[in-house]
Every structure is written in structure tokens, then in C-alpha cells.
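Section 5: illustrative case.
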């Protein structure tokens, strides 16, 4: 992508409305634009990151055996009245009516709709277990939207819903998502700690929030500091192994960890003083097991091996991609801008032409740009006629992991400079060596 032809509206000044680092940097880097209170457009640079986040989420959901579908954003109020949640959910739900005066709502979550899909299609235990997920926009009319897309009214959610014949089966499905979440956040460059959490309006009696520690976190969290060093399940994890997944769950719940809503001061004080960790946290995922709450209310039953009908046991599992992007920034930035993990960076490499219009610089940058693009790298080529300082500031602000800098003096010697955005380390090498480093 040539920067001269790309839409990336950089802001030089810090926006006054931005209270936290991620909101400020997302606005300055031209990733998002606010359309109204708590509602944002994702501009091209931001959407590239969001798409990569979603790709990792989707990959790990598929690996764990979940099956993707797509459900509508607008839902019939009848389903929510059937479950008993229509009046109980509160003012966060946006209630509307269509032209036939039928009550509708902009879905804040999809338990009712997916249960309706299930009950109309699945009748036998032989079709279980089943886990259905989608990645979709949702709306909750937050009383105080803030921090950009960290806490917005319209947001994107990956929500998955599991169906099992028994509680034991449902707990295995829960453990699948538990392990998948640990892997997902690790691939996004985050250390997420699962903590006992309140189930809220979703319901149920088993729930964990996945929390990353950050100074700008919305609430205080409490945990044993050993969580920071726990090993993440690797790509050899067998998601069909009941014992294997149970051992992962047991390990990651063996030490104290709780959100403020579930905090037990006495239990926390029982942790040795030097091992206690009290910090601010950002929720990046939430999983629930709620048994037969929705299946009983909505008549979702299957015939069991005993020939009798059984209400299915259900769970739901959410990750907010539009919340994850600022969470990653909160965890990875410096005074100059964003430092993206390679897995979600909008571009892999930025090629900086220090003197656009100089034939040698132009030819060198075109050569590098073509070679790296052909090799499958996402490359941003800064071919603008901006001053060198502006180009460097832009590259640092948007956080591309690698900068390849071509200036007249270096190019005359057949060389370029390669900068690592995270460490700031710079290395001068031949043009061929620079290409080979990232093509190999």
C-alpha cells in the first residue's frame, strides 16, 4: 500500500476528549472516528488491525470445534419475552418498533436467538455436543460510554454458545473455551488472567472474566502473582481430551484470582503477602455456564439415549474485538505511539523513502516494496514528500513492527537502515540483505 494513495488521517495534536492512551493514539493514528456518543467508524488502518484480531479469534474458535454462523443484529422482542429477559435487561437494551408496530430490539447478546435456532433444528443427543459462534456488531446503551472503543455503545462481539446433554458435557465445552481463550489472548500479545466473576444478566453459576492488567483498567482485580508466569496451552492441545482440558482449567484456577465483584478479602489475605497482586484490570473476555436456564424457558430439548427428552445444558462465551484493539495498545505503547505485536500489526513493514523524487531512492524503495509484497508481506510504502521528521513520527505513531529506511547517502552505498519499532534498535545493511531478512 502506497501511503500517498492511502486514507490515514493523522492528527498532530492530542484530542481533548481522549482520557486514556489507547483512545488518544487510535484517534491520532487515524484508526477510528467518533460518529456520535459511544459510536465509532473504523477507518482503514483500524479495520486492518480489527480484521487481524478477528482472524486469530476465528482460528482458535475453529480449532476448539466451534462452528461459525451469522445471526441478525435486530431481534424480535418475542424471543426475549419468552426467556423472561425482555423487561429485566434494563435501559441498556435499545427497544424499537417496526412499521407493523411489532416490538424489536438491537441485540445486546444472542442467547435467545441461538436457542431458537437450536430448538428448531436439533432433536437428538446424537447431534451433541454443539457450539455455534459468530462475530457481529451489538448495541448496549451504556449510561456512560467512555475510553473510545474500550467502552462504546455499539461494539463488535464474538459470542459462542454451547449445547450439551449433561452438565459434565457442558463443563467440558466450558473448558474448551477456557483453553481457547488463553491461546487467543496469548497470540494477540496479551497475558490474560481468568478470574471468578459475576454472571450478571446472562445468568448461571459458573463464570470467568479474562483480565489483562493495566493502569487504565476499569476496576480493581486481585490475584496471585504466579499467574503472570503460567505456561499457555500450545498448539498441540487436544480439545477432545476431557482430562487434558480439565488439567488446564484446574491449573489456571488453582490460585486466587477474582474481580472486585467476587473478591473475598479473607481468602486474598491468606495468600502470602509477597505473592499478592492487586491492580487495575481490563476485561477482554467473559465465559459463562448457565445450565438449563434458557433451554427450560424456551423448550430446547433433545431425546437422550434413554429415549426421554432432556433440556440441554448451555454456556456462552464472549470476546470483544473492538475492545481488544485498545486493550492491546494499553499494554504495548511508548511516548512515540503504538507498538503492535506482529500478529495484529496493520502492516508488517513500512518502507520509508527519505527523499521522494530522488531517482536512486525511488528505485531502491520500489525494489524493496515489490520484493516484500511478492513474498506475501503487508507493506506500507511511505512515498510522500513529507519531511523526514514527519515520516519517522508517523511510522512510530502507527506502530508498524519494522521500518526500512532509504536515504540518499545510504542508498549511494547500496545500503538501507532497518529499525525495530519495539526496541528502537537500528541496523545498516545492504539492500539485498534487508530484502532477504524478511523474505526468507
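Designed sequence:
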Amino acid at each position: 500500500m502506497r501511503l500517498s494513495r492511502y486514507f490515514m488521517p493523522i492528527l498532530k495534536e492530542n484530542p481533548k476528549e481522549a482520557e486514556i492512551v489507547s483512545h488518544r493514539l487510535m484517534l491520532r493514528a487515524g484508526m477510528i472516528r467518533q460518529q456520535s456518543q459511544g459510536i465509532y467508524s473504523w477507518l482503514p488502518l483500524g479495520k486492518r488491525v480489527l480484521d487481524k484480531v478477528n482472524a486469530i479469534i476465528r482460528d482458535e474458535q475453529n480449532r476448539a470445534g466451534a462452528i461459525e454462523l451469522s445471526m441478525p443484529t435486530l431481534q424480535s422482542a418475542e424471543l426475549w419475552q419468552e426467556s423472561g429477559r425482555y423487561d429485566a435487561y434494563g435501559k441498556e437494551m435499545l427497544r424499537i418498533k417496526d412499521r407493523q408496530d411489532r416490538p424489536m430490539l438491537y441485540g445486546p447478546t444472542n442467547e435467545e436467538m441461538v436457542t431458537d435456532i437450536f430448538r428448531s433444528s436439533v432433536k437428538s443427543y446424537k447431534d451433541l455436543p454443539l457450539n455455534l459462534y459468530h462475530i457481529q456488531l451489538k448495541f448496549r446503551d451504556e449510561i456512560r460510554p467512555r475510553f473510545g472503543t474500550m467502552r462504546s455503545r455499539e461494539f463488535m462481539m464474538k459470542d459462542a454458545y454451547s449445547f450439551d446433554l449433561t452438565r459434565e458435557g457442558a463443563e467440558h465445552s466450558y473448558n474448551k473455551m477456557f483453553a481457547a481463550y488463553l491461546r487467543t489472548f496469548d497470540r494477540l500479545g496479551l497475558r490474560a488472567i481468568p478470574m471468578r466473576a459475576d454472571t450478571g444478566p446472562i445468568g448461571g453459576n459458573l463464570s470467568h472474566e479474562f483480565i489483562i492488567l493495566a493502569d487504565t483498567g476499569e476496576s480493581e482485580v486481585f490475584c496471585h502473582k504466579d499467574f503472570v508466569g503460567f505456561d499457555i496451552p500450545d498448539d498441540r492441545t487436544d480439545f477432545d481430551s476431557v482430562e487434558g482440558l480439565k488439567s488446564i482449567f484446574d491449573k489456571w484456577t488453582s490460585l486466587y484470582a477474582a474481580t472486585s465483584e467476587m473478591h473475598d478479602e479473607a481468602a486474598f489475605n491468606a495468600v502470602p503477602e509477597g505473592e499478592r497482586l492487586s491492580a487495575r484490570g481490563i476485561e477482554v473476555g467473559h465465559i459463562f455456564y448457565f445450565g438449563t436456564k434458557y433451554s427450560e424457558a424456551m423448550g430446547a430439548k433433545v431425546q437422550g439415549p434413554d429415549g426421554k427428552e432432556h433440556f440441554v445444558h448451555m454456556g456462552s462465551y464472549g470476546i470483544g474485538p473492538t475492545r481488544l484493539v485498545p486493550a492491546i495498545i494499553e499494554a504495548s505503547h511508548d511516548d512515540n505511539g503504538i507498538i503492535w505485536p506482529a500478529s495484529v500489526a496493520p502492516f508488517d513493514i513500512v518502507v520509508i523513502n527519505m527523499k521522494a523524487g530522488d531517482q536512486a531512492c525511488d528505485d531502491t524503495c520500489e525494489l524493496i516494496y515489490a520484493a516484500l509484497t511478492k513474498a506475501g508481506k503487508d507493506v506500507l510504502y511511505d512515498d510522500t514528500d513529507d519531511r523526514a521528521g514527519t515520516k519517522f513520527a508517523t511510522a512510530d505513531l502507527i506502530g508498524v513492527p519494522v521500518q526500512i529506511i532509504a536515504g540518499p547517502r545510504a542508498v549511494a552505498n547500496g545500503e538501507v537502515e532497518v529499525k525495530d519499532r519495539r526496541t528502537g534498535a537500528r541496523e545498516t545493511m545492504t539492500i539485498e540483505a534487508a530484502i532477504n531478512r524478511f523474505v526468507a
